[in-house]
Amino acid sequence: MNWTIIIIEIIVMTIAFTAVILIPLVKNPVWWIHDYPQDIQEEYFKTHERVPSKFFSKTVLIKKGQKCQGVYS
What we know:
The termini are far apart. The chain contains 3 helices and no strands. About 0% of the residues are buried. It is elongated. By secondary structure, it is mainly alpha-helical.
């Protein structure tokens, strides 16, 4: 077993996983607001512009559909 290769693979996978999480979050911080409980969403929208946040709202489904198409195309 080559420990150098294992450590390199761990570092690469950590960077890839971090990029998958952080890039969409930096591009649109409200992207995952619908994942939070309704009371937290309401507190957030008291100080920010309201965006559709229901899980099956048209905007959320379109964005998730575009994301899936980008992954599977």
